[in-house]
Amino acid sequence: MPALVLLGAQWGDEGKGKATDLLGGSVDYVVRYQGGNNAGHTVVVGDQKYALHLLPSGILSPGCTPVIGNGVVVDPSVLLSELSGLNERGVDTSKLLISGNAHIITPYNVTVDKVTERFLGKRKIGTTGRGIGPTYADKINRVGIRVQDLYDESILTQKVEAALDVKNQILTKLYNRRAIAVEQVVEELLGYAGKLAPYVADTVLVLNQALEEDKVVLFEGGQGTLLDIDHGTYPFVTSSNPTAGGACTGAGVGPTKISRVIGILKAYTTRVGAGPFPTELFDEDGEALRRIGGERGVTTGRDRRCGWFDAVIARYATRVNGLTDFFLTKLDVLTGWEQIPVCVAYEIDGRRVEELPYSQTDFHHAKPVYEMLPGWSEDISKAKSFSDLPKNAQNYVKALEEMSGAPISAIGVGPGRDETIEINSFL
Ligand code: GDP
Ligand code: IMO
Ligand code: MG
């Protein structure tokens, strides 16, 4: 049972970093397969807190090899500063492997991300401004720059020229910005080549050989199911596939190798950026979830939008990812509410709808149908087993499990590694 995928079941920030880190001690490889430094994964080890953006959360487990797969987009300056930040804190990062096929977020991709958002005005996506969308667009348009291009100056120059040909027209004529010089970009990118060289590898080969040797490989998703470019709330999504299939294309591993798909599910819902969110709260309950849950973006520092748990979304995540398990996080945040509303279905234009509507218009009109579950007031942060939880907390978990379509195999009761109740082993 060697290959597991761990991914966000909602709109990101479900606690993937903590869950990955928890498993990191028992797996041989942790692989990021999509996204880039739009991700912000928090890991708390003892009294130390780490915010990871591009590096897989397995980097904090000494026995584990962290891998940045071909499906990831890499901003070299961010990667290098993340590495040196960890080195300064005594973390050994020498095992890191980076796919030579991963695409590079160039400075002009970051510029285009920012000006496009500004140009969209009220219709903006609310991106992280890290150049993610434009870099994936270049990849699909076949004018992207890959990590391996850093090692051939002539090819790199030709590719940057090709990419900037069109972009400079757009920047100067449409957005009224200054053109970006090819030489400047090439020089900056070549400056990263030597520093990244020790890490660059044929990660597809490495991972497939590892699987043949029965090594355990964990694929760590960035973002979440509802931010998926194909299966999310398009156009208010990111530009990659965080869903389970993305692990195969983004790492070069066949679907027959994946044995378990774990959905990380927050006990309530949050979202950063624009787009529909049926259970969003605009009252003091939303404020309380934000405050108690510390719901502020790790990457951009934006307040996260908060709302109650949405079982329609959880069921959808089970379906599109083929989830085998859920890891329910932040149950402790719900302590103290007398009653906890849970969205069990939507009402759309007078109809009750049990499953996520494929139509964007319908989803925009979806109003949550709530069922009230009794809350608990006891501190649950020290709970070590399911039976340590107060009865009402147990019932809340059981109700969510029933509604969501896959077993809840672990429960987070605090941000620390050990603040976890393990119900079924993942390995
Ligand atoms: P990610 O992007 O999915 O890795 O999640 P983030 O790190 O952006 O946000 C999750 C936040 O919740 C982080 O601050 C974590 O330290 C914290 N966290 C994770 N699991 C739990 C939990 O079970 N309880 C509490 N209180 N905090 C948690
Ligand atoms: P982690 O991995 C939450 C959101 C942005 C925006 C949309 C598109 O920490 O869960 P992008 O910069 O990707 O083009 O922005 O996606 N977004 C996230 N929201 N958590 C994330 O990552 C996110 N990464 C991107 O806020 O709405
Ligand atoms: Mg995050």
Automatic annotation (TrEMBL):
> What does the subunit section of this Swiss-Prot or TrEMBL entry state?
Homodimer.
**Location of the protein in the cell:** Cytoplasm
What's the protein called, per UniProt? Adenylosuccinate synthetase
What HAMAP family does its record include?
Adenylosucc_synth
Q: What pathway annotation does it carry?
A: Purine metabolism; AMP biosynthesis via de novo pathway; AMP from IMP: step 1/2
Residue sites binding GTP per the record: 12-18, 40-42, 304, 330-332, 412-414
In which organism is this protein found? Streptomyces chromofuscus
Q: Please report which protein family the annotation says this sequence is part of.
A: Belongs to the adenylosuccinate synthetase family.
Q: Which gene encodes it?
A: purA
Q: Which cofactor does it need?
A: Mg(2+)
